[in-house]
Amino acid sequence: MKYLIIVATFLATNCLLAQHSITGSITNNETQEPLEFVTIYFAQLEKGTTTNSEGLFSLSGLPEGNQTIIFSMIGFETISKTVNLPLDSDLKITLNPSAIEMEELIISTPFHKLQRDNVMKVERESMTTLRQNGAVTLADGITSIAGVESISTGLSIGKPVIRGLSSNRVLMYAQGVRLENQQFGGEHGLGINSSGVESIEVIKGPASLLYGSDALGGVLYINPERFAVQNTTAADFNANYFSNTKGYSTNAGYKASSDHFKFLFRGSLAEHSDYNTENYRVTNSRFREQDFKAGLGYQKEGFKTEFRYNINHSKLGLPEEIGEQSTARTPLLPYQDLTNHIFSSKSKVFFNNSSLDVSLGYTYNDRKEFEEHHGDEEHEEEAHEDEEQEDEIVAAALHMKLKTANYNIKYNLPTLGKFETIVGIQGMHQINTNYGEEQLIPDATTNDFGVLATSHIHFDKVDVQLGARFDKRNINVLNGFTRDFNSINGAIGAKTNLTKNIVARLNVASGFRAPNLAELTSFGSHEGTNRFEIGNIDLENEQNFQSDLALEYKNDHIEIFANGFYNSINNYIYLTPNGTFVDGDPVFNYLQQNANLYGGEIGLHLHPHPLDWLHFESSFETVTGKQDNGDYLPLIPANSLTNTIRIEFNKNWITKGYTFVTLRNTFTQNNVSDFETPTDNFALLSFGFGGDFRVFNKQLSFSVAGTNLTNKSYINHLSRLKGDGIFNIGRNISLGFSYKI
Q: What angle do CA 495, 496, 498 make, to 5 degrees?
């Protein structure tokens, strides 16, 4: 496969097209005045510029053929325009003022369109907004996205839950490549830091057509920060302080871009002590995380490529019971020591009205877990008394290395009438190796291969997207067995304007998930869950079929949405006790039964005229999951209602100013599995404000956010500490600033 890619790239670079330039002007449609600082962004090229004080812009080095351009500016409606280069004259663009948030390009779907042009509904949130809301970590931040929750182990470990599905049923992408980090474990977190992240996109529902196995429940797509605009440089320093954990996170970055080359790098450090509740600190919820990201890009004459690298090292305490009360930041035993390496390259070659995308990735996950009985007992006793303990443990109790190489090659066919079509192949080669004395899953090799085709069809009143895909997975367990899993999946969706202001989207899709190594091969005590797990070598694919209906009403002053889904899963894999015990741990077996999940989200956003600076947002989320025998599925989020009042303003001394108050009501969860207990309702109050200043002629952004302001003692239904009766985090005040150097 490597040689095929090299040959394809060589042939492509010998068919490159001539360079072209584009110039134009952008004005306010109401006043006809020129607009400064409008962003002009070429979606396929990932290249852009901004307008000057006269509303003019120019950009060179563009390939021949159809190109989609996004024009965006805060306070104005974002527009998308497709042009065929070369142009005979300058572009003249007018933007309409709008109180609605600036619309962004959706990257996780294959055709890279604005959300309003997508057939598939995708949730998107910027990392800046998540921080403004008071998020401590990335896993904490995603819970403010509609339909997304997190299975948490304290603050440091969180697993995304999309409409009731999690772990290997939700696929994560970072830097454009699949992120593999032993996500089968309930106590295994994301392994990625929020620094250097621009935005997060969430596909809610089966995305196997686009991504293959493990995308049965949805995709969490993490977009890295963009390179600098052509022929510019930028640097910034960011810092946040969190009162509850006496913790901080800092990061600094620099990026530069010339006509053809561009690069960036960013380093960060975060440390937190045990988080506080109304009555106690949660012992050993402390953690430390170091992160470094770098990128290098090149673009010329119809060819662009970029290489990115991320190393993340974290040391995460694993809370077990309430013990010592301390503000030390060094984790006690037990703890995880994790190192993630992500290498990725993404290249694109432009032909006449077609293009070739080649994405390659390699992830290396080094996971170690240390327990109290694996070190020198005398040393361990001293370590508990010493806040600055040094690790002198001979070896990790659990030590796994997961190495994953993947490829994603797509050809964007020439547009044929109303048809945009993409065909492609994807694959993965993965090796799991054990080095510790304990073993949760065996040494094994996994190979994936998939082929897909999808089209976006533009009719006069309806946009249709459809596609099909074939996948094959092979799992080879060392000195064990070999299993093959195959699946054919498809999707079809339509978007139409029922009226001038009402948009309807209907999507139906199938998805699948091959059983993971833990489900097939487990035989032993899983320390994180205090049970003896026995795998089932005869498990079959999980196969689902989901229908989604999304309705949106939008005018200049109000937006209303309603999303509903029904998800039917055949051969749903679950754990159940068999009534026996091994060394005091109950024995659980992996079994299969059909299951169904259903629910949705409804909400509104009101910004009344002439009070366009005032925003009221309200949303309600619900999901129910049941097996065919009537039993409820485990780890289903409770229903919730969120109400926010937000004020936005600009003054001579402050720009992008804001203040907000949010009340989130989480209702009682009584629909629980046989191994869960009900969870009481609770309400959390949040408040925040911030904005941008000019300091030494540079931009200084600041934010203040308070979460759980009433210091409510509560337990989230998805907290893994619930079984021990340990509360979630209490009141927290975060202070943050970012300075552009």
A: 140
Pair 633, 164: CB distance under 8 Å: yes
Name the region of 75 (left: φ>0; alpha: ψ -120 to 50; beta: rest).
Answer: left
| Residue recorded with tokens 């990115």 | 308
Please check the confidence at residue 68 and state whether its pLDDT lies above 60: yes
The answer to which of 76-80, 129-133, 262-266, 343-347 has the lowest mean pLDDT is 76-80
Within 10 angstroms of residue 396's Cβ, the number of other Cβ atoms is: 19
Give the H/E segment covering residue 8. helix 2-13
Which ranges of 204-252 does DSSP label H, i.e. alpha helix? Answer: 208-211
Question: How confident is the prediction for the chain on average, in pLDDT?
Answer: 89
Nearest-angstrom CA–CA distance, 716 and 739: 35
Q: How far apart are CA 38 and CA 56, in angstroms?
A: 9
Does 14 score more than 80 pLDDT? Answer: no
Cα gap 733→705, rounded to integer Å: 6
| Positive/negative CA dihedral, 60, 62, 66, 68 | negative
| Length of the chain as a residue count | 741
Distance from C-alpha of 216 to C-alpha of 568, rounded to nearest angstrom: 11
Distance of CA 719 to the CA centre of its chain: 20
- Spatial separation of the C-alpha atoms in residues 52 and 31, rounded to whole Å: 18
* Bridge pairing between strands 56-62 and 20-28: antiparallel
Tokens 């509104």 belong to residue: 604
Position 386 scores a pLDDT of 46
Report how far residue 500's alpha carbon sits from residue 485's, in angstroms, rounded to the nearest whole number: 46
The domains found in the chain, sorted by start residue, are 1-98 (2.60.40.1120), 141-151+201-740 (2.40.170.20)
What distances in angstroms separate CA 652 from CA 97, 436, 656, 693, 739, one per listed residue?
20, 61, 11, 9, 19
Beta strands 170-174; 218-224: pairing state: parallel
- What residue has token string 């006269």? 54
The strand order across the sheet containing 56-62 reads 56-62, 20-28, 91-95
pLDDT in tens, 72-111: 887 788 888 888 788 878 889 898 887 666 677 888 888 8
For 494-521, b/e burial (b = at least 16 CB within 10 A) is: bbeeeeeeebebebbbbbbbbbbbbbbb
Show the DSSP H helices in 237-321 as ranges.
Answer: none
List pLDDT tens digits, range 329-380. 999 999 999 999 999 999 999 888 889 999 999 999 999 989 875 444 444 4
Enumerate residues 6+ apart whose C-beta is below 8 A from 537. 481, 483, 520, 521
